[in-house]
Amino acid sequence: MLEINSIRKSYAKTTALDNVSLKVNQGETVVIMGPSGCGKSTLIRCINRLTEPDSGEILVHGQNILELSDSELMEFRRRVGFVFQQFHLIGRLTVLENVMFHLVLAGADRSWAEKRAAEALEKVGLSGVHSRKPEELSGGQQQRVAIARALAAGPELMLWDEPTASLDPILVWEVLEVMEELVRTSSTTMIIVTHEVSFALRVADRIVLMDHGRIVEEGHPTSVFADPISEIGIKYKKLLAS
Amino acid sequence: MFSFFRDGFYKDFVVLLILTILLGTVFSAGIAWALDAYFGDTLNEMIGEYGQYDIILHIQEDAKEAAFRELERIQEQQFPGARLSETISLAGQANFFFGLPEEFRTKETMTNLASYFAAVPGLTGHTIISDPSLLIRNVHGSVADVLAEKIEQIPGVRFTFPDVGNIIVLLEEPSLSRTVEAQVNQLIDEYQLVELRFPMGFEVDTQQVGAQAIQVLKETLPGRKYSNVTAAQYGEDLNAFLKTLVEMRDFLMSYASKVRITADPEAHLIIGEQIAIQADGAAPLKEGGLLTDENVVIEITAVSGGTAEGMIIRGEIAPSMESLKQTGYRVFSDGQIARPIGEVEVENERYRLAYAIDESLRLLEELEVLSVQAADAVDNADAVLNTFQEALLQLEVLQVQMRQLNEGIAGGGSASSEQLLMSLLINGLFQSLAQAAMQAGENSLDSLENLDVAAMRASLEQISSQIANVQSIDVQAIIRQIQYVRDTLPMLGDEEIGRSIRLINTYIAGQVIPGERIQILVEEGSVDEGQVEKLLREHLDNPYLNIYSTSVGVINPDARSEIIRLLTEVRAIIAGLLAVVFTSAIMILDHSTLFSTLKYLKRAGKEKVSRWKRLLDPVYILGGILGAVILGAVYSLSGAQIPYMSLSSITLIGLIIGILVACFAERFSPVNAKEVMAGQALGLSNVQIMREIVIPSSRPGLMNFLNRWKQQF
Ligand SMILES: Nc1ncnc2c1ncn2[C@@H]1O[C@H](COP(=O)(O)OP(=O)(O)OP(=O)(O)O)[C@@H](O)[C@H]1O
Ligand SMILES: [Mg+2]
């Protein structure tokens, strides 16, 4: 469903993406891994154009999303759920509002949206906190609210940018559990950026390893971690062994 | 980025802009108005409400009570129903307002208003404050009546009345003051006062020279009406001062050394030229040489034929009774000696004066001693005369006795040798006693007797009384007085005197002090000052003549209108400053949120923007326009007016404020990037991001307030 063709992105001093191409099939769960600063976030943000690539194309169902008009882009983004490392909840809204407001703004009926939001919150295990403010929740709970928000619109593609990286280690598992559950039960295509190797091993249909703005290795998790060809792959193998 | 506005945000934006401007106007104009009202009230307390009073009477503070009683009396008896109130005291002066009831506000009463108060104790002056009115100051006496009459013809003018050199024009309505002022100005402009000023020292017959000047003007600049309206001269103080200066100059001139020059036929001396003489200088002057300090320089002050007069302007001549006669040489200003011009004779007047005084003092001292001696002499002479008379008597007796003795000796016939010897002895004795008399002849003793001793005594007595007269004079007092005069004579050298005279001359001849003046009234047209000056200098043969053209009166807004106008100005300035403050504040506090978000949204993804392109950033342009529009509109709507600032420069300031706020928008209102990014990722439009995410969590303000109606969460 998704086809990224040789995109490049460079900032003033660094080249974040250097001729990256990637194909993702419908329903597939792709885990992108790589050392810090290798361009993972840039890549995943390019997919919903939170970052504009300098060149290349990104085809979704054959449509180059880099050519979308403003309203088409909005429309596209509504179908793509995005989970940020740092949750990015709206501080002044309640948990329920955070999960439903974009549905209403997209034109949905308010009560319907409320129902959808409640369902999404139930899915992430947060039924009793509807009227709380994000700041009253733990990091893990906040991230689950963010996941619920992404889920509420029923996305066909979900992009995860290190959803557990800024969490207290003892809270990581509750988020990973929710994610694993989601991967298992839904047919949504997922692209997950994470450093959780064992998690990747469990959920990924495919592992993509990046280094210095390039994809250096990709394949089935067992083959990648068992028999890596890239420097990074070898490092991950060692990490896994220990 | 401007998709933003396309998505319907522009409506919110326009509403925001309009409300911002309205709020700004209310804010600026309101505060300014409140200040104005406050000052206005204070002002009314100080100078009375508009049109309520006619005159302010200035009274010495200590006579205040008495004055108030008298004013109350005038109020009761002369102007029943008049308003009287005391206002602030300033500089030892109390001030009272007096307002006439409407029925007393007539030309007649107003003309004589001051005289009604003449007897108020401690009155030091008055100020007419009738309103609505116009004040025409410095109205020339020659046109005052005509002008007043013409002004009274102007519609809207009730009447006029004079007040010490001014004309006060009372109007029917305050609103008419502009139109009446314009018409009065027109009337004033129909006249022109041309003043001919002569330097001091020119004794001008104002009538004759005036007529002469008018004649010249009529011939060369025809078509106007000219009349001589020369008014009374300048203030007495100035005249006295100038007279003193002239006296001083004359005194100095008589005190300076007299210089007479007998010029060689070909010398052609002119006034102002400088001549040098050797004076006490070591070496004689030589053509082509240089002057030394001992040489004396003379300036020529008068020339007639072959002789000239001058005064010393450098150096001193020796103190001497003798006049100094030396050859004079022309000198150049650099001290170089030129050709000889003839003989110069210098008399040291000051030395002569001092010498004469010293001599008189000596004489007086001698006189005193002399009178004492003379008195003694007369007394002695009297005693001598007495002795002489006595002696004469004795001599006569002796003569008789001798004759008898002689006869006795001779008559006896038988004279003994002792008798003969005796006779010889007596004769000899007698001879030595009165030798001269005896020699003179036989009757010598008789001639002695013939001396008129009485007459001699009489003349002696006369002398004695004259001497007494002399002695009765207080010679010492005279001496003291003369010494005083001598001591107080100016210790001035010739050089100082010469320079002083020159200074006084330039001062009284200069243009600083007006000399005689002639005033010519020009009607039915006007003349050019410069042209007239050139013309009259030539025709009246006086290069020092100055011409000034003035108007016959000056319209002065009365003090109150002036203050009210000033207050209005102050209000306008305050409103202007408030408009600037408001614009800056609203942009920093409110609109900066908009700018920072716009900048963030625009930048998302596109990092590579060159510095120069950044300057052309549409956000800055938007900021500039917003600032210009808000400030420009608030400024003009609130009636603000900052001196020397046109609306365009104010708009420019707005533009700069707007650009600056846009530049530093993130500092004033940082963007919550996480929330905005979430909004983007969730597929919200920029407008929705603005309404639902950015503005609701921004600072409370107008934008925040207006957004509530649009906000869904
Ligand atoms: N907004 C930006 N401006 C300038 N450079 C940037 C920006 N965002 C990312 N980069 C640079 O681009 C490179 C790739 O960054 P990116 O965030 O994609 O890395 P990452 O793989 O996600 O790293 P991490 O694991 O730390 O999240 C890095 O060198 C980073 O410094
Ligand atoms: Mg990252």
What's the topology here?
The complex is a heterodimer of chains A (242) and B (713).
Chain A: E1 2-10, E2 15-24, E3 29-33, H1 40-47, E4 55-60, E5 63-64, H2 70-78, E6 80-83, H3 95-105, H4 110-123, H5 139-152, E7 157-161, H6 169-185, E8 189-193, H7 197-203, E9 206-211, E10 214-219, H8 221-226, H9 231-241
Parallel strand pairs in A: 3-8, 3-9, 6-7, 7-8
Antiparallel strand pairs in A: 1-2, 1-4, 4-5, 9-10
Chain B: H1 3-47, E1 55-60, H2 64-77, E2 83-90, E3 93-99, H3 107-111, H4 113-116, E4 123-128, E5 133-137, H5 141-152, E6 157-163, E7 166-171, H6 177-189, E8 191-197, H7 206-220, E9 225-228, H8 236-255, E10 258-263, E11 274-277, E12 296-304, E13 307-314, E14 324-331, E15 337-347, H9 349-411, H10 417-433, H11 435-440, H12 444-450, H13 453-472, H14 475-488, H15 494-509, E16 517-523, H16 529-539, E17 546-550, E18 554-556, H17 559-603, H18 611-615, H19 618-637, H20 647-663, H21 665-668, H22 673-681, H23 686-694, H24 702-707
Antiparallel strand pairs in B: 1-3, 1-4, 2-3, 5-7, 5-18, 6-7, 8-16, 8-17, 9-16, 10-13, 10-15, 11-12, 11-14, 12-13, 14-15
Helix pairs in contact in B: 1-17, 1-19, 7-16, 8-15, 9-10, 9-13, 9-14, 17-19, 17-20, 19-20, 22-23
The structure holds adenosine-5'-triphosphate and magnesium ion.
